[in-house]
Amino acid sequence: MRKTIEVFKRKYILLAGLLLVAVVTVFGDKGIYELLKVRQERDGILAYNHSLESENRELERQIRLLETDKKYIGQIARKELGKLGRNELVYKIEAPAGDKALAPARK
Questions:
Q1: Rounded mean pLDDT, 46-53
Q2: What's the pTM value of the predicted model, to 2 decimals?
């Protein structure tokens, strides 16, 4: 009987030790949970890095065009600064005060 109790105690202590090791392995400072968290953070950083690389390539393309392409410079000036090209006219059409058909649509 005493031997059975000792065997039970040893098994209980061994099981408790294994459970403790499992908990530390999963939730410890360098455990599986922390590993998954770090991997998720790394994946987010890599995705952000790829988006920055794409943005850099687009900016480099725009720089090359600004340095070499006068038509591109003209397009940018028209688009961003409201400049007119040679022989271009702007027609501004205003709707009569009471005419709702010609009034601009509102969002």
A1: 98
A2: 0.52
CB-CB contact of 53 with 47 (8 Å): no
The domain total for the chain is: 2
User: b/e map of 4-42 (b: 16 or more CB within 10 Å)?
Assistant: eeeeeeeeeeeeeeeeeeeeeeeeeeeeeeeeeeeeeee
Tell whether 21 and 39 lie within a shared domain. Answer: no
Do 17 and 35 fall within a single domain? no
83 pLDDT tier (thresholds 50, 70, 90) = confident
- In a domain? residue 106: no
| Cα–chain center distance at 58 | 17
Domain of 35 in residue numbering reads as 31-84
DSSP one-letter string for 5-20: HHHHHHHHHHHHHHHH
